[in-house]
Design brief:
The structure holds 2 protein chains of 2 kinds. Chain A is of the alpha/beta class. Chain A has 11 helices and 15 strands. Chain A has helices at residues 5-23, 76-86, 103-108, 111-119, 136-146, 153-158, 173-181, 219-228, 284-309, 326-329, 332-336, and strands at residues 35-36, 40-46, 49-59, 64-73, 90-91, 98-102, 128-132, 171-172, 187-194, 200-209, 212-217, 236-239, 243-259, 262-278, 341-352. By secondary structure, chain B is mostly helical. Helix content of chain B is 75%, strand content 0%. Chain A: InterPro entries: GerAC_N, Spore_GerAC-like, Spore_GerAC-like_C, Spore_GerAC_C_sf.
Chain lengths: 360, 361
């Protein structure tokens, strides 16, 4: 028995050592300094040929710079593979934050590429989507030349806890994918281009219906869109003839009904605002009235256009899920949405007038 | 000594380990509206079966199901327990293979499948070899360590929920239960039926109170609901049905800026895989118990080693996910048999024994 003991110990330790080699999970591992971690990807498509631009921050201890790599090919994965091969680093898209699509590409439809992003395991479904109003090459060049933080600007521009403002839509890849399959939901994707004094500027939002860009709305309309989605318009400025105000809170209530085959939605948006600036000496009643009038007008104009385009970016169809049976809701975009009636009332409360008094 | 706490922990963990991957896929596929009907029906069956099973067991004082059936006659024991052991073997193969595939799909994409399977079997085999008491203590420890994390991830997963997707509440198809005999729904039963049989194997080793387990069953219900409704509320049925693992996709959309980790999915995956490992080791232990009953001369360590080797080799023979799905479907017949026959027989044997006992006095 005792003679066998060393053999058993040796056997056991060999098994353990073997397991350590096989099961440690370090399979084909690449160290972090051998990986390129792009922060933004630009995607163009001309006659079926994709062109991909990758914006890769390069931070060393003393400096931070940006590198742009681009290549073209017939599938996205093929291009990424080729870039990985040509680069001295392995491209790792795990931490990709923003995907910028070319506008003409978006107009022809993003369906296939968005589906492949959803299918692939290395691009996160919560990556932010944007559409570029200028060629992606020149947008990325501007990003590179003006960058001081290693290319983080484009990410911070969209991030809610950094540079995001309510005039900017925020849409993620999974939401575009959802609009491909949903009966009642479309999305608005922010349109960006390089700015004059800032790195970037937003020129509104693209209206995406079933993965295709069918129209656009202005930044002011995007604010209303965000307010309608309860993505509170907090801290936003609305300029009128007599005053500028900042919206503190917005609360919504909706009531949907179907009358004679026509969908009717009564919505009420309660806004609490604070006065920021005045021109001349308007009374609070005037400011309140003008604000409500302006918002209603703008909203109705935007909604009429969206109805004509048949794109339900406000997701109003969602309010009819319990009114219209599912098989008929499948035709929401064609049968109900263009004829639907939206009665929107803005109800504003001027919470305070800042530190100066105003006439009531 | 009463060890109900440990039994409850293992009961919860082994079921939670099974719920979150294939179960939502099957339920979302089987219905377009009113998924709660499907969940509640399945859950009612689950509770009923456990009640019958434990009631039957309660007639026998700390006897395992193998002893009970063997006491009723050798032929009966063979007829009843052979399908059960076959079912366990299938369950082992499927769970190991499916979870290895899930792990490679979701996060270890460059690790070969066999290495992940070997890891699963090595860990699960070791736990089961350590004995059932150790396993149940591990269960309690895993529950204490991972439950807070799991609850955090589950609450975060509601971030993108759009509650309008709850409507319509139900339609003709869900109200008439016409989906019940269809393939996706029958498949979904593995989440209900996989784990509960262990309650009949442990009485000689880990005593527990029947009522404690029965009172815990409702705790599982929210998990079933969350696993199906989070993807439905986030994506809507039409989009959710496109996904291989809808719940994982829904957790992936959660974006928490204050958390230093980018993907909460990782926490979730690791938690659930830990639970699944516990489940695998539990099934391994049950299977070796039965093997050793038939072949008493096999040493316990050799038995679990052999079992792990057999499972590993069979797992390697399964070429793709389609095959896994087909095996899942074949296993459904065995599963329905196990769910229906074993608890009922236990109850019948129990009642018969009590009558005999009463007649004897």
């Amino acid at each position: 028995m005792n003679a066998k003991l060393p053999v058993r110990i040796a056997l056991k330790s060999m098994t353990m050592a073997g397991m350590l080699i096989v099961l440690c999970g370090c399979w084909d591992i690449r160290d972090i300094n051998h990986r390129a971690l792009p922060i933004a990807m630009g995607l163009e498509n001309k006659e079926g040929i994709y062109r991909i631009h990758l914006l890769i921050p390069q931070n060393t201890q003393s400096s931070s710079s940006v590198r742009i790599v681009s290549d073209k090919g017939s599938t996205i994965n093929e291009i990424i593979d080729r870039i990985s091969k040509d680069l001295e680093l392995e491209v790792d898209l795990m931490h990709l934050k923003v995907i910028v699509f070319d506008r003409t590409f978006a107009e022809r439809g993003l369906g296939d590429s968005v589906s492949s992003f959803m299918r692939s395991r290395d691009i996160a479904s919560k990556t932010i989507a944007a559409i570029s109003d200028e060629s992606i090459g020149s947008l990325f060049q501007t990003l590179k030349s003006t960058s001081t933080t290693g290319g983080l600007e484009i990410y911070n521009f969209f991030e809610k806890n950094a540079g995001w403002s309510p005039q900017l839509a925020q849409t993620r890849i999974w939401q575009i994918f959802q609009s491909l399959h949903s009966f009642t939901k479309d999305v608005a994707v922010p349109i960006i281009k390089s700015g004059e004094s800032t790195t970037m500027t937003s020129t509104g939002s693209a209206v995406i219906k079933n993965g295709k860009m069918v129209g656009r709305i202005t930044p002011e309309e995007t604010l209303l869109f965000n307010a309608f989605n309860g993505l509170s318009a907090q801290g936003k400025i609305e300029v009128m003839n007599h005053a500028a105000v900042v919206i503190d809170t917005d609360r919504l209530s909706h009531h949907s009904s179907v009358k004679g085959g026509r969908a009717v939605l009564n919505s009420r948006i309660n806004l609490k605002v604070t006065v920021l600036e005045t021109k001349g000496s308007p009374t609070t009643a005037m400011v309140k009235q003008e604000l409500e009038q302006l918002l209603t007008q703008n909203f109705e104009r935007m909604f009429a256009r969206l109805q004509a385009e048949g794109a339900d970016i406000l997701g109003v169809g969602q309010f009819f899920r319990n009114r219209i049976p599912r098989d008929r809701l499948a035709n929401w975009r064609t049968d109900y949405y263009p004829r639907m009636k939206l009665n929107l009332t803005f109800h504003t409360v001027i919470e305070d007038e800042g530190l100066l008094k105003m006439k009531p | 000594m009463d060890k109900s706490m440990q039994v409850i922990a293992v009961y919860l963990l082994s079921h939670i380990g099974l719920i979150f991957f294939m179960y939502p896929t099957d339920i979302i596929e089987s219905l377009s509206v009113g998924h709660w009907c499907a969940i509640l029906l399945g859950f009612a069956c689950h509770v009923a079966v456990i009640a019958i099973y434990t009631k039957g067991l309660s007639y026998f004082k700390s006897q395992s199901i193998i002893d009970i059936f063997a006491g009723a006659g050798k032929a009966l024991a063979w007829i009843l327990l052979l399908p059960v052991s076959l079912y366990f073997l299938m369950m082992l193969i499927l769970t190991v293979r499916a979870y290895a595939e899930i792990v490679t799909i979701i996060f270890l994409d460059s690790t070969p499948l066999w290495a992940v399977m070997a890891l699963f079997l090595a860990v699960a085999g070791l736990i089961s070899f350590m004995g059932v008491e150790a396993m149940f203590r591990t269960g309690l420890l895993a529950a204490i360590l991972f439950f807070p994390l799991l609850l955090f991830v589950l609450s975060v997963s509601f971030q993108n929920a759009d509650w309008h997707y709850l409507y319509p509440i139900m339609d003709k198809r869900s109200a008439s239960f016409s989906f019940v005999l269809e393939r996706p729904y029958l498949l979904s039963f593995f989440a209900f039926a996989g784990g509960f049989l262990f309650l009949g194997f442990i009485p000689p080793y880990v005593p527990y109170k029947r009522r404690a387990v029965l009172w815990t069953t409702p705790v599982l219900l929210p998990f079933f609901f969350v696993s199906v409704y989070v993807p439905l509320l986030t994506f809507g049925r039409n989009t959710a049905v496109q996904f291989q693992f809808p719940f994982i996709m829904a957790v992936d959309t959660a974006d928490i800026s204050w958390l230093m980790f980018d993907r909460v999915t990782m926490f979730f995956m690791i938690t659930v895989i830990c639970f699944a490992l516990l489940f695998i080791s539990l099934v391994m232990w049950k299977t070796t118990l039965m093997i050793r009953r038939v072949l008493p001369f096999v040493r316990p360590d050799l038995a679990s080693l052999l079992l792990a080797a057999v499972v590993f080799v069979i797992c390697l023979q399964i070429p793709n996910w389609k095959m896994v799905e087909r095996l899942f479907w074949w296993n459904t017949y065995l599963r329905l048999y196990v769910v229906a026959v074993i608890p009922l027989t236990t109850l019948v044997l129990g009642i018969r024994r009590r009558r005999k006992g009463a007649a004897g006095i």
